[in-house]
Specification:
By secondary structure, the chain is α+β, with helices and mostly antiparallel strands. It is built from eleven helices and ten strands. The strands form three sheets. It has a five-stranded antiparallel β-sheet with strand order 1-2-3-5-4, with no helix packed on it. It has a three-stranded antiparallel β-sheet with strand order 6-8-9, with helices on one face. A two-stranded antiparallel sheet has the order 7-10.
Length: about 325
């Protein structure tokens, strides 16, 4: 998460406002926070991010450079400097333009009808990222929750993803199996479906295109994509489309309808096979289910279980 959504006001007694002032930034202003850290506007188009999660590495900076050099039709993060203060990593980055496309579905109710502005914006972002070729640095990244580069030992994205599914299921799959019928057979069906996917040229994958991670201008056009790192890699652009359709609205009353509508839209407009999108959605649920906890107190675990229960690849062997 590179520049989290803006907040309305600074929380009281933020110690980093004083520390940033001591470091030469007396006008620092807290503008948001996410799972990876807190972001402060410094002025002159720069922000400071104080990391509480996994900090960026030189590999992260290389990935940012690889994306930027292909000039996608929106701004992407750029790290100018990395410092460490009392064991805490602080990055100084470019401030990205625009405002979040909308809030997160965990905090606001999405309307039943998807607007043309949102549909077109998502298609623009997916096309833009699909125009950026996958790079060696992207292949060397690890997905959050895993302990090895996604592509290590593999030449095809579906095979690398299948290996990740196996590792993720080995972590706490028994807990997930308590909520999903015929779990082991469903995992096997997913792995078989991944193995049957064709090899395609890989592109930059963001992997977490929830609405707050897409910034738009006043007309609703995407002007920035942020928060790379959670599932960033080089991969099949259909994977990006599949995940985006599933996570656009995760918790609202019309979430299932929105996922189905966006999956169909991306298949039609971007030329992806519906069954390919479906197997990638199963793989995403199987590889992220335990990253935020495994109880009803965290919404992601039951969301993943529900995704699997109604995923046609996971629940039966043959999908047209």
């Amino acid at each position: 998460m590179e520049t989290p959504p803006h907040t309305q006001s600074d929380p009281p007694a933020d110690p980093w406002l004083g520390r940033l002032a001591e470091l030469g930034h007396p006008g620092a202003r807290r503008i948001g926070a996410g799972v990876e850290g807190v972001v402060y506007a410094l002025g002159d188009g720069r922000v400071a991010k104080v990391w509480t999660g996994r900090p960026p590495t030189e590999l992260t900076r290389q990935v940012y450079t690889d994306i930027a050099r292909h000039h996608p039709p929106f701004a992407t993060p750029e790290i100018f400097e990395v410092q460490e203060h009392e064991g805490v990593v602080v990055t100084y980055e470019r401030e990205l333009p625009g405002v979040p496309m909308r809030g997160d579905s965990a905090h606001e109710v999405f309307e039943r009808e998807l607007s043309a502005r949102h549909r077109n914006g998502l298609l623009a972002v997916l096309r833009g990222l699909a125009s950026v070729p996958g790079s060696d640095a992207m292949r060397r990244l690890t997905v959050q929750g895993d302990n090895r580069p996604l592509w290590q030992g593999h030449d095809r994205f579906p095979d690398a993803l299948a290996a990740l599914v196996s590792r993720a299921v080995a972590r706490h799959g028994t807990s997930l199996a308590m909520h999903v019928a015929d779990f082991e057979a469903g995992v096997e069906r997913t792995l078989n479906a991944l193995a049957q996917l064709p090899d395609v040229p890989v592109t930059a994958i963001h992997g977490d295109l929830v609405p707050p991670n897409i910034h738009v201008d006043a007309a609703g056009r995407p002007v920035a994509v942020l928060d790379f790192g959670f599932y960033t890699t080089a991969g099949d652009p259909a994977f990006e489309a599949a995940v985006t359709a599933a996570i656009w609205d995760m918790y609202g009353p019309y979430a299932q309808e929105h996922t189905a509508e966006l999956t169909q839209l991306f298949a039609q407009e971007l030329g992806y096979a519906p069954a390919t999108l479906t197997v990638y959605q199963a793989a995403y649920a199987l590889t992220t289910y335990d990253l935020f906890g495994m109880g009803d107190n965290d919404g992601h675990f039951p969301w993943c279980a529900e995704q699997l229960r109604r995923n046609s690849v996971f629940t039966r062997a043959n999908v047209s």
